[in-house]
Amino acid sequence: MGRKNFRGKNRRGGGRGGGGGGRGDRAGGGWKEYPAIVKENKNLQNFYDALLQFPEEEREQYWAALRRELPNSFRFCGSKGHALAVKRLLQTRYIPEIVKIEHQDGRPVEPPLPVPWYPDELAWWMTTPKNVVRKFPPFAAFQKFLVSETSIGNISRQEVVSMIPPLLMDVRSNHVVLDMCAAPGSKAAQLLEMIHVGEEARVRKTLRSFAQEDGLDLGKETQEEAEADLDADPTDCGRATGLLIANDADYKRGHMLVHQLKRLSSPNLLVTNHDATQFPSIKLSPDPERPTEAKYLKFDRILADVPCSGDGTLRKNPNLWKDWTPGNALGLHMTQVRILVRALQLLKVGGKVVYSTCSMNPVENEAVVAAAIDRCGGLDNVGIVDCSTSLPGLKRYPGMASWKIIDKSGRIWSSWEEVQKFVKESKEGVVPGRLVETMFPRPEGPEGQGMPLDRCMRVYPHLMDTGGFFITVLEKKTDFRARSENEPKSAPGQSSGAGQPQTEVGAEPNVEEAAKPEATDAPAAAAAPAAVVDQAPEPVKAEADSKDETEDTPMEDATANGAKRPLDSDEAEQEPVKKAKTEGATDSPAPQQPAGKPKQRGRIEEPFKYLDPSHPVIQNIKDFYKLSTRFPDDRYMVRNEMGEPAKAIYYTTALTRDILTQNEGRGIKFVHGGVRMYMKQDAPSAEVCRWRIQNEGMPIVHGYVGEPRVIHLRNKETFRRLLIEMFPRIADDGWKEFDEIGERVRDIGMGCCVLRVEPDGDDPDFQETMALPLWKSIHSLNLMLPKDDRSAMLLRLFNDTSPLVNITLKKQQQQQQKDDAAKQDTTEENGEEGATDYAAVEDLPSPE
Ligand SMILES: C[S@@+](CC[C@H](N)C(=O)[O-])C[C@H]1O[C@@H](n2cnc3c(N)ncnc32)[C@H](O)[C@@H]1O
């Protein structure tokens, strides 16, 4: 590609990392940006000018940054080795082309650069905005790379400030993590990746120690494997034992979350659909030493990335310039406090909560942190962690110790005393707007002292040319009972209530915990699950329990302002393409409501039923694939009422199994869990196992598959042929065309096998080891991969964009029609199995 030029007007100045102002050198060349939107709002500007009190020059930089388009940013995901391979491609193939592109005035385009504070240079940004990269032809190849790798989960198009909260959580492989408000899921994906860091290498290292005994050929030892730290998570043969529960109150957004996280194929994930203010207590098996004592899950890490007014996202959501009103933030304050209090309750002692918003308003930030700590008994129970040395290179401001509140009418208030005085003196005698005491800075004097709110982090848009973000890390020091909202604080001199049993009134969200006066980490098992909000198998009171909460801060407000804000462009890009078919949703029609009953929210999910290891299907799978006895066979699960394998068999971790079995019938709304490991497949003869290994489950199981079902491939060109051709022939000496694997594919028994791609290391663009499902039938072979994955691999490894070749397309179409008809008849196993199984439909082995 020679020098390429793109045109446009009104491109504004400013760039990344300018340290107060960015690079103001962009005028002259460029592109159009949102010309129709007037980026002015008097109330907004007056309020923040009064609040932030920047010197004049910095104030201008702040507003100028907010009016500019956001730089383009993305993150390489997945296992480290894999992420580094995709990153290498950016550096060697795309950046050299990008630097040849010129602005209208002849200046070269600035290439993407690593975000300086992100570990391992896995996050990148570039000053050219997203919509320019998307639309201008010189960027077409780069854009294709971004889209292709995003679609298969190797790249996340995430805004840089949104990457900060998970980085501060220090998540380990064995941590139990909750993301309370997780949709659409970019931070949840980051957290899940952290749970899996180092796992692949640990598992291989463990397997290698048994390889000779088990007759496994694991190929060459990688450097990562040699350096793997088995002590990082020692209890399950190197596998990650941690868990992420990703929750969102909004059912539809919850399914975007499933779509986003499913790409990571993690058995360490559960997705739930609950109001975070009432997130339920999750039951675990009792400790063997105390079999009669109920045990509940507590978390090592919690992310509370709460619904907020979002005024830090003005760059990404320019409509906010006209939509911002002072009331937005006020309506969210109480919900935010409740979510944070619930997070602190659910945390282990020593655990950490990260509280974050994309708002700059202290009423949603410092005021929430202070109010939640206060309700949990003060700084003796919950500390604010000093993160000043974390993420060096990230420019930030400390949290505020004092601030003002703007009410719905635009009037600015300095203190709660001022509000009370107004109430006393006014005729109406009522508090204006939705003002409450906890919105205001803590008063001077003994009660208000000592809250180190300066440890909170404020990331302003002009500091590094980003969006705005607020982040605070809190640590639980001891167990406590949180004071309810309606309960007055202890009189001065008395203990704040830490560790004291307190009467819970209405507003305390979890009735299970409230039911037991001294409950701390083991809430009493209540007869009715407290946090069930709808469609519970056992009808329970729940909406009634939360009446106080809904009365003083209607959730409608919270959702109107925060939860149901329109999708921004990142989110929209991540949205499932096939909107009509919500992934993870059942195929069953929504349940019919008996007349006169309140309408149910959400839909009923299929149950999760675990298979007995002695089940004939499990035995057949073990025999056929010669699975090592070291692979756990008590974690297989199906999703139908009968508990019989019908279409898909899932795999989960041991902890997930415990949670799903212990909480069956308790009304907890699990909407996703488990990785599809085996899919039912028509087989040409009785000797062939009808359960093929699904691509998603392959990374988990392939190391345990016996050599009789493995094909080792080293040649890049052989791999290219398997990727580009669907159903290449092996009959009539066709196998001879397959170079080093020819004889092996001729001789191996029919059915599914593991294709282990083990590059010989000579080609720098072909270094990644992979394991993929391959189906052998009488006449042909077929890689059982979705078309998107094939195309993405062709692009990545061969820079090849040619269409896939499918010689049996017609047969496929007929088969697809047959499958579709059969699907309509299937009622027993819908759930996630109901979602299109593209490998089975599009890549079905040719019927022979
Ligand atoms: C700021 S967004 C979260 C963004 C997300 N953490 C990410 O990184 O992609 C806030 C989310 O909170 C959800 N939400 C709103 N009210 C909630 C509540 N009471 N409980 C749980 N989730 C809630 C909304 O549906 C929305 O998806």
TrEMBL record:
Residues 15-29 have a biased composition (Gly residues). This is SAM-dependent MTase RsmB/NOP-type domain-containing protein. Residues 1-29, 481-602, 810-848 are annotated as: Disordered. Residues 1-14 have a biased composition (Basic residues). InterPro entries: MeTrfase_RsmB-F_NOP2_cat, MeTrfase_RsmB-F_NOP2_dom, Pre-PUA_NSUN2, PUA_NSUN2, RCMT, RCMT_NCL1, RsmB/NOL1/NOP2-like_CS, SAM-dependent_MTases_sf. It holds the Pfam family Methyltr_RsmB-F. It is found in: Nucleus. Residues 62-477 form the SAM-dependent MTase RsmB/NOP-type domain. Belongs to the class I-like SAM-binding methyltransferase superfamily. RsmB/NOP family. PANTHER family: NCL1 YEAST -RELATED NOL1/NOP2/FMU SUN DOMAIN-CONTAINING (PTHR22808), RNA CYTOSINE-C(5)-METHYLTRANSFERASE NSUN2-RELATED (PTHR22808:SF1). Residues 575-584, 817-826 have a biased composition (Basic and acidic residues). It comes from Hapsidospora chrysogenum (strain ATCC 11550 / CBS 779.69 / DSM 880 / IAM 14645 / JCM 23072 / IMI 49137) (Acremonium chrysogenum). Its main location: nucleus. Residues 520-539 have a biased composition (Low complexity). S-adenosyl-L-methionine binds at C181, A182, A183, P184, G185, S186, K187, D248, D275, D305. Residues 492-503 have a biased composition (Polar residues). Keywords: Methyltransferase, Nucleus, RNA-binding, S-adenosyl-L-methionine, Transferase, tRNA processing, tRNA-binding. GO terms for cellular component: cytoplasm; nucleus. Gene3D superfamilies: Vaccinia Virus protein VP39 (3.40.50.150). The active site is at C358.
